[in-house]
Write a structure and sequence with these properties.
single chain, 611 residues, alpha+beta, six-stranded antiparallel sheet, five-stranded mixed sheet, 63% helix, rod-shaped, binds adenosine-5'-diphosphate
C-alpha cells in the first residue's frame, strides 16, 4: 500500500532525484569540457611548442654550419653542439606526445632525417676538406635535408594546430550539446514537477476537500452521501471510516425515526383523547393537531383556520400572543368565556400559549390554544355565592334587630341595668358589631367577585386618595400611640380609581397594620410611579408575617395561626385583592417576621385604562 508519506516521499524524492541527475550531468559536462580543453592545451600545444623549438634549433645549427664555412669554426661548432641537444630534447618531447594519427610517422621521419643531417654535418665542417667542396656539400647534401626536416616539423606543427582548432570546435560543439541536454533535463524536471503537483492534488488535496464537503453535507442533515474509495492510502482509509460512520448514523437515524414515529403516534393518540379542548396552531392560526374534545366542542379540526370559526375573542388573543411572545389568558371580569354546546351553557377559560422554537432568538414556532372547561367550577362558585348571599341576607335581618335591641337595652330606655347586665350587654353589642362587619365583608366579596359591585372609575390623584384614607385613621392610630405617616408626593400623575373602594382598601390595610403594630411603632404610606401604574405601599413596624404564610395571605378565610386572637375571619385582604383586580392592578406583600410588613398594590395610570 502506498501511503501519503510514501506518496510525498515519492514525489519529493523524484524531484530530488531529477535535481541530483541534472547536477551530476552538469558536473560531468563541465568535467568533460575541462578535459577536452586540457587535451587541447596540454597535448597539442606541447607538440606545437616542440616543433617550433625543433625548427628554431635547426636554424641555429644551420647558422653554426654557416659560421664554420665562414672560418669561425669554434663559434660554429659551439652553436651546432648546443642546438643539436636542444633539437633532440624537443624531438623527444614530440615523440612522447603523439596524439594524432600519422604524427608518429612524421616524427619518426624527422628523427631519421635529423640523424642523417647530423651525420652529414661533419662533411661540411671538416677543415681537411677544401672550402669549395664543403660549400658544395652544404648545398647538395645539407640544404635539402635542412629543408625536408623543417618542412616535416612544420607539417607536424600544422597538424597539431589543426587538431587544436578541431578540438576547440569539438569542445564548443560539446558545450552546445551540454547546453541542449541541460535544457531538456530542466524541461523534463519542470514537467515532472507539474505532474507531481497534479498528482499531489489528486491524491491528497482533492480527497480532503471531498471529505470537508461531505462533513458539511452531514452537518446540513444529508446522510445519503457516500465517498468514493479509490486509493488505499490513509485518505482512502479515512474515506472508508467516514462511509462507515455515515452508514452508522443512517442506522441510528432510522432507529430514531421509528422510535420518533412510534412516540409521535402514541403522543398524538394520547393527545387526541385528552379531556381538555386543546389545539396546536401554526403561525397563520391554522389548526395542526387538536384533541377530540376541541373538535367536538369548538370545531377546531386540523386544517381549519381558527380565526374563521367565528369566535371574536380568539383572533386578538392569537395576535397578542405572537406579538408579545407570552401566554395570553382570556380577559374579562371573571376570566371565563360563555359557550353554548347543544343549547347547554358552558364556561371555558381560554389561554393561548406560544410554542417557542428553542433557538436563541426564542421566536414562536406555533401556538397552543387551551380551552379549560370551568363549567363545574363556575357553577360551584355561583352556588357558593348564592348561598353566602342568601345566608348573609337571612342572617343580617335578625342580627340587625338583635343589635337594635342590645343598643336600646344599653341606652336603658326600657329599664335600668345593673353593672353585670351592662357588662354582658356590651359584650353582646361588640360581638353583634363584629358579626355585622363579617356579614358585610362576605356580601362585599360576593358582590365584587360576581362583578355586581359597580366600580365607578374616575381620575384621582394618588395624594388625594391616600390623604382621605389617612384622615379617617389618624385618631385611631394616635389613640394607640402609633404614628401614621403620609409620604406620598402630590406630583404623581392621576390614576384611574373608584375612590370609595380604594378608601376601603386603605382602611383594610391600615386596620391590619394598626392591629399588629405595638404602641411606639409607625405606619408609612408611600406611592411610586411605575411604567404604566402607580404603586402604593403601606409599611408597618409590627409583628410581621412568618415566611411560610406569606403566599397564602390573600386567600379567603386565611389567617396566620399564631395571630388568631388579633385577626378577623380572614376576608379583609381577599376583598383588597378583588377590588384591586377589578381596577386592573396587582397586590403584593413583603414581610419579615418580627420586623414588620409592607403591603402594596398598583393602580393603572389613566391613559392606559382609558385606551
Ligand atoms: P382579617 O380580616 O381576619 O384580618 P385579613 O385578610 O385582613 O384577615 O388578613 C389575613 C391575615 O393576615 C390575618 O389573619 C393576619 O394574620 C395577617 N395580616 C394581615 N395584615 C397583617 C399585618 N400588617 N401584619 C401582620 N400580619 C398581618
Amino acid at each position: 500500500m502506498i501511503g501519503i508519506r510514501q506518496k510525498l516521499m515519492l514525489g519529493f524524492g523524484g524531484l530530488l532525484g531529477i535535481v541530483a541527475v541534472i547536477g551530476i550531468l552538469t558536473m560531468l559536462q563541465i568535467e568533460d569540457l575541462g578535459q577536452a580543453i586540457d587535451i587541447i592545451l596540454k597535448e597539442n600545444y606541447r607538440s606545437v611548442v616542440a616543433c617550433q623549438e625543433m625548427k628554431e634549433s635547426l636554424e641555429r645549427i644551420d647558422s653554426g654550419i654557416l659560421f664554420t664555412l665562414a672560418g669561425k669554426e669554434e663559434e660554429g661548432n659551439k652553436l651546432i653542439v648546443e642546438y643539436t641537444t636542444d633539437f633532440y630534447s624537443a624531438l623527444d618531447i614530440q615523440l612522447d606526445n603523439i596524439t594524432i594519427p600519422g604524427e608518429q610517422d612524421m616524427s619518426q621521419r624527422i628523427k631519421t632525417l635529423f640523424e642523417k643531417y647530423i651525420n652529414a654535418i661533419s662533411i661540411v665542417t671538416r677543415s681537411q676538406t677544401s672550402l669549395q667542396e664543403r660549400q658544395s656539400n652544404y648545398f647538395i647534401i645539407l640544404q635539402p635535408l635542412f629543408q625536408d626536416i623543417k618542412e616535416t616539423a612544420q607539417k607536424v606543427l600544422s597538424m597539431n594546430q589543426d587538431n587544436m582548432t578541431q578540438a576547440n570546435n569539438a569542445a564548443r560543439h560539446r558545450a552546445d550539446s551540454a547546453h541542449r541536454s541541460m535544457l531538456i533535463a530542466i524541461i523534463i524536471c519542470a514537467i515532472l514537477a507539474m505532474m507531481y503537483s497534479y498528482l499531489l492534488h489528486r491524491w491528497i488535496l482533492h480527497p480532503i476537500s471531498r471529505l470537508i464537503e461531505s462533513t458539511n453535507e452531514i452537518r446540513a442533515g444529508n446522510l445519503e452521501i457516500v465517498l468514493e474509495g479509490g486509493s488505499r492510502d490513509e485518505i482512502g482509509q479515512l474515506s472508508e471510516s467516514f462511509n462507515e460512520m455515515v452508514s452508522a448514523l443512517r442506522q441510528v437515524r432510522k432507529a430514531d425515526r421509528i422510535t420518533l414515529m412510534r412516540t409521535r403516534r402514541a403522543t398524538e393518540e394520547v393527545f387526541k383523547s385528552l379531556p381538555t379542548a386543546i389545539a396546536v396552531l401554526d403561525l397563520d392560526g391554522r389548526v395542526e393537531v387538536s384533541t377530540e374534545t376541541a373538535v367536538r366542542q369548538f370545531g377546531l379540526k386540523p386544517g381549519v383556520l381558527a380565526g374563521s370559526l367565528g369566535y371574536e375573542w380568539l383572533s386578538p388573543m392569537i395576535r397578542k400572543a405572537l406579538d408579545e411572545n407570552r401566554i395570553i389568558e382570556y380577559d374579562n371580569k371573571n376570566g371565563y368565556m360563555q359557550h353554548f354546546i347543544d343549547n347547554h351553557e358552558y364556561f371555558f377559560q381560554p389561554m393561548v400559549v406560544p410554542i417557542l422554537t428553542g433557538s436563541e432568538q426564542d421566536e414562536p414556532a406555533g401556538l397552543a390554544l387551551i380551552l379549560k372547561d370551568m363549567t363545574q367550577v363556575h357553577e360551584q362558585t355561583e352556588l357558593k355565592r348564592s348561598v353566602v348571599s342568601t345566608v348573609s341576607h337571612q342572617l343580617k335581618t335578625p342580627l340587625t334587630s338583635l343589635r337594635m335591641s342590645v343598643y336600646l337595652l344599653l341606652e336603658e330606655r326600657i329599664g335600668s341595668l345593673n353593672e353585670k347586665q351592662v357588662e354582658l350587654l356590651i359584650a353582646a353589642r361588640d360581638d353583634s358589631d363584629k358579626l355585622v362587619a363579617i356579614l358585610n365583608d362576605l356580601l362585599d366579596l360576593n358582590r365584587i367577585e360576581s362583578g355586581k359591585s359597580n366600580i365607578s372609575l374616575e381620575y384621582a390623584s394618588p395624594q388625594a386618595l391616600v390623604r382621605e384614607a389617612v384622615d379617617i385613621f389618624l385618631i385611631e392610630t394616635r389613640d394607640k400611640g402609633v404614628m401614621l405617616l403620609n409620604e406620598v408626593s402630590d406630583e404623581l400623575p392621576e390614576v384611574v380609581a373608584d375612590s370609595q373602594k380604594i378608601r376601603h382598601v386603605f382602611a383594610n390595610l391600615f386596620s391590619n397594620a394598626l392591629r399588629f403594630t405595638n404602641p411606639g411603632g409607625s405606619i408609612t404610606v408611600r406611592a411610586n410611579l411605575e411604567q404604566d401604574s402607580v404603586r402604593f405601599s403601606v409599611q408597618d413596624t409590627g409583628t410581621g408575617i412568618p415566611a411560610e404564610h406569606i403566599s397564602h395571605i390573600f386567600e379567603q378565610f386565611y389567617r396566620v395561626p399564631e395571630q388568631d386572637n388579633k385577626s378577623g375571619i380572614g376576608l379583609g385582604l381577599a376583598i383588597v385583592k378583588e377590588i384591586i383586580r377589578a381596577h386592573g392592578g396587582e397586590v403584593g406583600v413583603e414581610s419579615e417576621f418580627g420586623k414588620g410588613s409592607t403591603f402594596n398594590f398598583s393602580l393603572p395610570l389613566m391613559k392606559k385604562t382609558i385606551q
